[in-house]
Amino acid sequence: MDRVALYLQDSHDLRDGLDYVKYAEEKGFEAVWQAESRLVRDAVVPMAAYAAVTEKLKVGSGVINNWTRNIGLLASTFLTLDDLAPGRIICGIGAWWDPLAQNVGIERRKPLLAMRETVEVLRRLLNMETVTFEGEFHQVKNIELDVVHGNTEPRDVAIMIGATGPKMMELTGEISDGAVLNYCVPPEYNDAAMEQLETGAKRAGRSIDDIDRPQLVVCSVDHDHDKAIDTTRGLLTQYLAQQPHIAKASGVSMDVVAEIQSILGWPATHEQIESAKHLVPEDLIYRITASGTPDEARAKVQEYVDRGATAPILYPVGGDVKLLIDTFATK
After folding, report:
1. How far, in Å, CA of 69 to CA of 138, rounded?
2. How many angstroms separate the CA atoms of 308 and 81, rounded?
3. Of 317, 5, 58, 329, the residue nearest 181 (C-alpha)
4. Rounded alpha-carbon distances, angstroms, from residue 134 to 10, 66, 77, 292, 326
5. Which end of the chain is more exposed for a tag (fewer CB within 10 A), N or C?
6. DSSP assignment, residue 189?
7. What does the alpha-carbon distance between residue 217 and residue 187 come to, in Å, rounded to a whole number?
8. CA distance to 93, 187, 209, per residue, from 197 (Å)
9. CB 288 within 8 A of CB 184
10. What residue ranges in 9-55 does DSSP mark as E strands?
């Protein structure tokens, strides 16, 4: 496991995140990825902060959605991040999810076409081309990233798609630099994902070896095994209710999801999560997360690597983040 990354969301103070990424860099981590999922923490602001306090660490969005930012703004945002950390920025982008998108007035129709158009126009703009594009979701006329002062060369920003479903996975293999494989799925989920990525890659005259495949992995590490498991149970309670597409990919019973959803509100409160978390089966925790002692967590993460993930992106669930970093340190 010579490549490993850190995933940060919103369970820590943002300033503490700066200490975590600096420590991860010292311990040989390759990258840090910042979440942007629920309506809580924007990805771009923390990414800029992480880039400013590190020297070598790559900084990725894990993942932003392709619906809420105008394509010109999206391109200029990643141009700006690349100005701050040249060659270290990764644009992880996904198709978002309902019901959150619906609740803020976004109709996610034709997600494959929308993603294809977004990646094409974004890549051309970051290549510093003058772009005219008449698509169904993006219409731009004679635009370019208007750099007058500074670097006018094409930008080295990898575009990676956070794919879960089979059709999006195939598209990812065809058009992107890599797949950000989802969390809360069992390692065997990767078997079909690798086939789908290969199918898409072949359409573009590539092989799966041309597609980077980092994977988010929920990771709760504690010297107390039971404490690590209980912490993960709380997280899964919330995510199975709010992101049913992940529950589906994990093979979780929709009856269990429905019962959890009947208890949790939106947004869910701590009390509601505590009330519902007993519904999460313990075997599910072992199947779809890396939770337990350091040795147990390492062994589970290795299963994802053995089934095609090129670099685990470790999501520390509560507890001692530095213990997690130490557990997976490469130096």
Report:
1. 11
2. 29
3. 5
4. 37, 17, 22, 51, 49
5. C
6. H
7. 10
8. 16, 16, 10
9. yes
10. 31-34
Other residues' Cβ atoms within 10 Å of the Cβ of residue 296:
17
Q: What's the DSSP call for residue 109?
A: -
Look at the pTM and tell me if it is higher than 0.85.
Answer: yes
| Amino acid at the residue 75 | A
For 9, 220, 275, 286, the CA distances from 270, given in Å and listed in that order, are 17, 18, 9, 23
CB 325 within 8 A of CB 24: yes
Q: What are the tokens at 326? A: 């130490």
If 0-12 CB within 10 Å is exposed, 13-18 middle and 19+ buried, where does residue 73 land? exposed
**Which residue positions in the chain have pLDDT lower than 70?**
none
- Residues 61, 219: Cα–Cα separation, whole Å: 19
Domains observed in the chain: 5-221+290-327 (3.20.20.30)
C-alpha–C-alpha distance, residues 29 and 217, integer Å: 15
